[in-house]
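Running co-folding for S-adenosyl-L-homocysteine.
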Amino acid sequence: MTTLIDNSPVQIANTKPTLVGLTLDELKVKMGEIGVPEKMHKMRATQLFRWIYHYGITDFEAITDINKELRQKLAQNFTLERAEVLERLISKDGTRKWLIRTAPGIEIEIVYIPDVARSGALCVSSQVGCTLNCSFCHTGTQVLVRNLTAQEIIMQLMIARDDLGEWPTPFEDRQITNIVFMGMGEPLYNLDNVASAIEVISNGEGIAIGRRRITVSTSGIVPEMDRLGQLGVMLAVSLHACNDELRDILVPINKKYNLEALFKAIRAYPDLSNSKRVTFEYVMLEGVNDSPKDAQDLLRLLKGIPAKVNLIPFNPWPGSIYKCSDRIHTKAFSEFIFNAGISAPIRRTRGQDILAACGQLRSESKKTKASILKKENI
Ligand code: SAH
Ligand code: SF4
């Protein structure tokens, strides 16, 4: 069930809408709205696109190839503002987290995870809350507030780049090299907007993060996986269990799209190869999915698929019913998979001191599910 809070475009503090986060087509429409002659729509929109997403400008006066009259007209009607940043946190390990508000009641967390090898991933959200109910996930305790618009997805990246000082788009030595849709929400339930956002983010005239550096994580929405494949982005699957009985409990969408259907869709994902592997996320839950038998089952499932496995230590949250597997079990699991020739690193828990780790994202625009309220006695 979707509760609509506010679906209006990002509009901050004043009455003028911002152009930041719009697609090229949307910018063309805006040109029409302020009386730019039709034959000039494309050219002006293309120029603006480059100024917004390559240079990251915040003031129309910075534009050098648009005449003063049009610059003034743009400023009279629009802004280049970002969404409001409510909180900025930096962890002692360098992880950063932002809490932003794009509309009344719509609060989104963004996480930047710097890596060892001069690269870093930005973890973005596609929904506020989630309709799915994975039993180990904090976001799953929230009902869906609503889908994020493409603009709100792009805005997450703009704000992170502002703070990291990453304008104009650098050709090398970037801090944000990769985008992962691993924040709140199920991206494949908002694929239209996710696809539009990817189109902007990957456009070489702007932010220029290539599709091979964008990973979309899904809990397994089988009917949408084909469409995702057409976008040319990398696929991550939240697997977490290797038999239907257990996966029905951990990732309940499995009751609708079971392992057989899921793996059929994964095998059909386009262009899989050693350089385009599927990432399988596997949360380590003590006594639940961390036995040697589970590792064997996992290998059997992955047979013949160019794959890598990400073992995620379970991050507990208030009211969670699971425990994280201990080091010994996790290491043994990882080594078993590695020995079969599949990379299976144990993901370092990052940014725990600022609650930025996987599954800990849960903004204040929360609408807690009734069942949880009951369990927590709230
Ligand atoms: N809804 C999508 C995108 C979210 S990705 C999906 O489920 O794939 C977030 C990842 O973190 C998923 O793999 C999810 O299963 C995992 N996760 C959720 N809660 C977690 C927790 N408490 N500890 C560790 N990982 C968790
Ligand atoms: Fe939703 Fe993903 Fe969390 Fe499952 S793991 S509840 S699909 S965000």
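Result summary
The radius of gyration is 21 Å.
Residues 84-374 form a domain with the TIM Barrel fold (CATH 3.20.20.70).
Job closed.
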